[in-house]
Amino acid sequence: MAGPVQSIERAAAILRLLASGPRRLGLGEVAASLGLAKGTTHGILRTLQNLDFVEQDPATGKYQLGAALLHLGTSYLDVNELRSRSINWADALAARSGEAVRLGAPLEGQVLIVHHVFRPDDTLQTLDVGALLPLHASSLGKVLLAFGSVPLEPAVEAGLEAYTRHTLVAPERLTQALTEVRELGWAAEVQEMITDEAGIAAPIRGHGGLVVGAIGISGTVERICDAKGVPQPALVTQVRHAARAISRDLGAARW
């Protein structure tokens, strides 16, 4: 029998390394971590980049996992299509709102971030593409739960983790909140996952009206909400407008 293919093993090792940490890595860091020559590492990274398995930040030259990997774990929607249809609208939403924009899709009982636009300022930010968020503690996740993209029962049975003192961990409170999301057509999180941070999200629909993802903004509570901690109506309108526009591009009727 044929033995293992060394180049594939090295490519897999690079992908695992990039997936194991929260930050991007430079060529030297990848090579040193895996004990490979820089030339060999660069060749593998370039091949992975051509396949969209790896992305390189044009400003820093550092590498991260690419969008092509994100769709491998999904079932009923091509994440690449969702992402490509959303890019222009997400950029516009970030520019109008002044906040970071994230696009989420369901994956194994969590929210997979498939696209992330940085807040349009000079503050230090971390790319969230590929990150997994909890359903019950994020505005993106609440949208997916409320509109049936993922079932609620498994999340409740597994136990609702408290990330802050504001996290909805009582099933009856979460159920009530999801009912409100369906009635309003959008979801919010206010210090439920991270203290002093808030978010607003709205559903993205595909053919037949099925909710296939969610788009939302996130930022500090003082920017997202009013003095009473209520999301600002203007921001809600901007998020819903972007969600409807993407839905139309995906073929959803009446959006």
Automatic annotation (TrEMBL):
Membrane-crossing residue ranges in chain numbering: none
Top-level taxonomic group: Bacteria
The UniProt record lists the keyword Aminoacyl-tRNA synthetase: no
Domain IclR-ED as annotated: residue spans: 68-252
Keywords: DNA-binding, Transcription, Transcription regulation
PROSITE patterns associated with the record: HTH_ICLR (PS51077), ICLR_ED (PS51078)
Residue ranges constituting the HTH iclR-type domain according to the UniProt record: 5-67
Protein name as annotated: IclR family transcriptional regulator
UniProt source species: Streptomyces sirii
